[in-house]
Amino acid sequence: MQENLQKRQQKEQTFYRRTGSLFVSNVSLKYYKTPMDANLIDIIPYIAGENDPIGPGEVAHKLVIYIHPKLSQTGEDIICMEKTFKGARGKCPACQEYRRRVAAMMSEEEIKPFKVAGWPRVLYNVYDRKNPNSGVQVWNASSYLFQQYLDVIARRSSTSPGQQPENYVNFMDPTLEGRSIGFDKQGKNELTKYIGIHFEERQTEVPDSILEAAHVLDEIIAWPTYASAYEETWGVPYDDNDVPEGIASERTKKYDKEVKKVEEKSKPVEEKKEQVETDEEREERELEEKLAAVRKKKEAEKAGAKSTKEKAQEKKTSSSGCPHGHVFGIDIDEKPDCDKCQSWKECAKEADRLEREKR
Ligand SMILES: [Zn+2]
Description:
Blueprint: H1 2-10, E1 38-43, E2 46-47, E3 59-60, E4 63-65, E5 67-68, E6 78-79, H2 81-84, H3 93-103, H4 108-111, E7 121-128, E8 136-142, H5 143-156, E9 179-186, E10 193-201, H6 208-213, H7 226-234, H8 250-274, H9 279-303, H10 308-318, H11 344-358
Bound molecules: zinc ion.
């Protein structure tokens, strides 16, 4: 089978330009959209190209790709080169970020978006037996929904042990030895299910025209480089440290903030080793830290968590003006500033007035 396939495909091999998201943009592809009712398809074999993880020149019938779902700046999937090629093509910026977040013990919510999907996407060249005029179509299927069950029936359908050297149904064989695959689709989107996946005897061979039209699947994929995956993940070019404020995406800003957070967490320990702090300096620093924390808390309290009544009250009273920013006529004698306050008398008057109002 391999020799024939190779001959057929030699003249067909085109090297597509790689741009855009999952698929290259300069080749028009027909996609197989599984109908709601019964499907009957043949999976068409081809000779793997240079970028197939199984190795170039091998007979292939599927391309397995691991992805980071919806992680790109435009909400599309990003191919995980690290997992797809088992590390042979270097690191993945999204996986690096995932590991960093795990190490920094961030919350599940913060970690999850960077996790590679456990079930890979599986691409096939499909020949629709119910609609043969549509030619070869590319099916981007979930291994969770399809390939894992296909594997099971391919093994189960084998004849009893000892009869055949291969314990596997070679369903992708384009002759009558191969099999068509039938199944029903149920549900849509996340609720999609493929049920009753089974093999059917072929009535006719896969036509030569279909075999020749099968895509070398690894050549229609826009494999990312490290730099392009980085850019898709963060929205800024890789290696560009000088990103103007306006261009940096929200996510990048968030990332920078989080990197700083982690760096700050690990910093003081290192610094302590290097410089010896006197007790006095330490006390001063601790006090400063405490004050900063109090200030921060106050600011946060100011920003929210005040009832409308409180706000209204504050507006009414503060208009008369406490020089220290406290609530005029209310906070009197409750703040350290009150001891030496120039407006103490006015404030006391206001406090009396408010007291009378209450009665
Ligand atoms: Zn990855």
